[in-house]
Write a structure and sequence with these properties.
The complex is a heterodimer of chains A (150) and B (597).
Chain A lengths: L8 E2 L2 E2 H7 L5 H14 L4 H10 L5 H14 L4 H10 L5 H13 L6 H9 L6 H19 L5
Antiparallel strand pairs in A: 1-2
Helix pairs in contact in A: 1-2, 2-4, 3-4, 4-5, 4-6, 5-6, 6-8
Chain B lengths: L8 E5 L4 E5 L3 E6 L7 E3 L10 E6 L4 E6 L6 E6 L4 E7 L10 E10 L2 E8 L10 E5 L2 E6 L2 E6 L5 E3 L2 E8 L4 E8 L11 H20 L9 H13 L1 E2 L4 E2 L22 E2 H14 L2 H17 L9 E2 L10 E3 L10 E3 L10 H16 L5 H17 L18 H21 L5 H18 L1 E2 L4 E2 L26 H13 L1 E2 L2 E2 L18 E2 H13 L3 H12 L11 E2 L5 E2 L5 H17 L5
Antiparallel strand pairs in B: 1-2, 2-3, 3-4, 3-5, 5-10, 6-7, 7-8, 8-9, 9-16, 10-15, 11-12, 12-13, 13-16, 14-15, 17-18, 19-20, 21-22, 23-24, 25-26, 27-28, 28-29
Helix pairs in contact in B: 2-12, 3-4, 3-5, 3-12, 5-7, 6-7, 7-8, 10-11, 10-12, 11-12
The chains are: A mainly alpha (150), B alpha+beta (597).
Amino acid sequence: MSDEQPLATYLDGTSAEWLRLVDSADPVERRLAVYALGEIGRHDGETVTALRERLKDPVSFVRVWAAAALRRIEPRSKEALATLVAATRDEQHFVRSLAAWMLARTTSEAAEEVIETLTGMLDDRDASVRAEATAAIERLQRLERGVPTS
Amino acid sequence: MAYPPIEHHGVIGDMYTTALVSTDGTIDWCCLPHFDSPSLFASILDDRRGGYFRLASVDEGRNQQMYLPDTNVLITRFLSEHGVGEVVDFMPVQGGDKTHQIVRVARAVRGRVTFRLDCQPSMDFGRQPHEFVLDGRGAVFDAGGTRFALISRFPLSPRETGVATEFTLDPGESTTVILRQVEDERETDLLEARLAGEALLQDTVRYWRNWLGRCNYSGRWREMVHRSALVLKLLTYEPTGAIVAAPTTSLPEEIGGVRNWDYRYTWIRDASLTLHAFLRLGFTDEAARFMEWLEDRARNSAGDPPLQIMYRIDGGEELIEQTLDLDGYRGSRPVRVGNGAAQQLQLDVYGELMDSVYLYDQYGSPLSYDLWVHLRRMIDWLCANWEHDDEGIWEVRGGRRPFTYSKVQCWVALDRALRLATERGLPLDVSRVQQERDRIYETVMEKAYDRQLGAFVQFFGSDALDASNLIMPLVGFCSPTDPRMLSTLDRTVVELMSDSLVYRYREGVGADDGLTGSEGTFNMCTYWLVQALTRAGRVEEARFLFEKMLTYANHLGLYAEEIGPVGEALGNFPQAFTHLALITAALDLDAALGGGQ
């Protein structure tokens, strides 16, 4: 993911324009902004700083999306990984589900910690979380085996 | 946005409504929650103001479409040098008037694929402004209390009057987007679209395969027959059993012309003929539902004439025609909703109706006495009124005529009533009905056959041909090898056929249809010619026509009402008439070639 060329814009918005939304009072706008920054993928100081700030966002789903975006730009970011792992224990099932999905999406190699976290979600009380964790593990296992893409 | 060719579409639905999906992944037609509801997406009728919902790969390449076999689950495929992406579209079949929804599953099949989603609803053909809010689920569109939610895992961004997003999927990865009505803002089951989407997909696939598994046809062209059956089922309104003529309005019979009509209603004619096709394929449940709908119409009707020619899908009688302020498909105006033909007199509907009733009585379920009483009242009326001029099967707007097809179908109506009375022992003034039936027969033979032309003509006293007369041997009015019929066939082939496709009539010749402009060849008439030739023993000729006609289907086996000079689809799409005629032609031809159901 980090070896991809950054885009100039996301949906016609530049990094600068999306950065202005990162501190919006609306968490849905903040989520959109961090996602857009991740899609643009510019590894610059301003973007990284903004995303790191959002790892501490008061709203859990914003934190998850910020972590995912940061992992696109800095795949080895320990802070981002820690945020996602923490989110797998969120009280809201859709956040846990989101975190499982993002862990698999943003992991380019099958790190033991990630697989261990996901395995722990297989007995989650919510069916959608279990399904997402199962799909995530399968994806990472394919990565581990070097299964060619379909 | 440009207007894609009409034939560049697939159709999905849930037997309450449908959506058209073009090969570029755009839903450019959908009325929710029912066939005749105001539109949500109608960019096929106005590419600026109509509204659309696009989900497609951003990479340039080649697009294809296919259905999951034996289903109405549509797959649009995007092939490029960078990878292969797919969007699976379907409307879950859930039973009952539950929330109606469109499920779209995007997936990367090969390589990493970036998709772009653009959802720009436009309520009520652009007449009803809407607002929308973004929330954790996606977006909620609100137009005066009518709400739709777009559920997307990927964050949506406001764009114009809708939303957009772009996302990249890794090989094997998928994401589900659901568009659905919102009835309760507190609904909490909307968040996990993917899980819900997978379950809905499995249920929907299972539904369609189970349904099609009841089809008893295994002869030639089975896949085309099956696809046509699936289309007809999609056009069935599940709550009442009514069958719409097509799920669209105002797709033009001539590009840039005025022949643009609303087909989202139930014509007695079209539905009766569809019933006929369903019965021949073994779908008796659909026939039973439609018979119930019909009985309701008959029971509630005390008018003169006894039946309207068409009704709303809920049985309502008002179909007030209005024109809309839309550009029209490629500038084909006016765009209409409602249909003024509802008030016309079309005597043939009683024949199509009684023929289907007779068939249903034989192969479905014996009709009830109460229904018979209603039908008998219609027969009584017909005995006293068959001589009236009418607007006929083609719903001409240039004045009533004594159309031959109408009189033939009047004969059919009385003939089937006599058969039912005789075979079932049902009470009927047999003498009177028989007398009128025979009078119709002699009148047609005397006044509708032009000796100089050597053919049955469009209406008494005219010298114009009309392809609707091909029905004569198909309903048993005359022998398929009667010299009069054979010469009519020959004349039809010479004067109304072009490249194996049949026009309804020649414009400017015969009855004034009250319209300007021209139209394409009429698909149902081409299939009627196939049947007439088959029954006349000209089987190889029929087969060639049939096979050639199959090449005019679109990539999914779907047809509109007509075909233009370069093979383009014209008119509303997909059309029940064409697909039911394909079925009956295939069955007849297969049997003649030595096959069998």
